[in-house]
């Protein structure tokens, strides 16, 4: 990497440390030409393999773009989307693989999106999972309801079921 000050191609590493939980390495370099210091950063390139076999670099922006479409008209702001993309990237990188099939990216989006907004989740899932019938939606909504009610007491429902948790 050339010195950003004098374009000299030769530099010496004076310090090197892991950042982002070991996901990246940052190096402090000293130019052997002008003696000035600059920092370089190295991250593992995460490749996404599309169905066609073409690979492209994973991009948070793409995740945001894909999810934003499903969030139209929903109370979801840009921060929410950025945070979601960050979570998706973390969960994908935690697998420690250099390449990941594109459908795995979609899969990693579903969980955080479901927590964010149920309607956006249904829209995204219907495309991602290629829903073909109303039954597909009904099943997904049933799962969504189940996930939303587990763990939280719901005083609004009066189904008459006995509380056997005691
Ligand atoms: Zn220099």
UniProtKB/TrEMBL annotation:
Zinc finger (unnamed): 3-34
Pfam families: ATP-cone (PF03477), Zn_ribbon_NrdR (PF22811)
Source organism superkingdom: Bacteria
Cofactor binding summary note: Binds 1 zinc ion.
ATP-binding in keyword set: yes
Annotated InterPro entries: ATP-cone_dom (IPR005144), NrdR-like_N (IPR055173), RNR_NrdR-like (IPR003796)
Record keywords, A-Z: ATP-binding, DNA-binding, Metal-binding, Nucleotide-binding, Repressor, Transcription, Transcription regulation, Zinc, Zinc-finger
The keyword Transcription regulation is assigned to this record: yes
Cofactor names: Zn(2+)
Domain ATP-cone, residue spans: 46-136
Functional note: Negatively regulates transcription of bacterial ribonucleotide reductase nrd genes and operons by binding to NrdR-boxes.
PANTHER family in UniProt: TRANSCRIPTIONAL REPRESSOR NRDR (PTHR30455:SF2)
Family the UniProt entry places it in: Belongs to the NrdR family.
Protein name, UniProt field: Transcriptional repressor NrdR
Organism: Haloechinothrix salitolerans
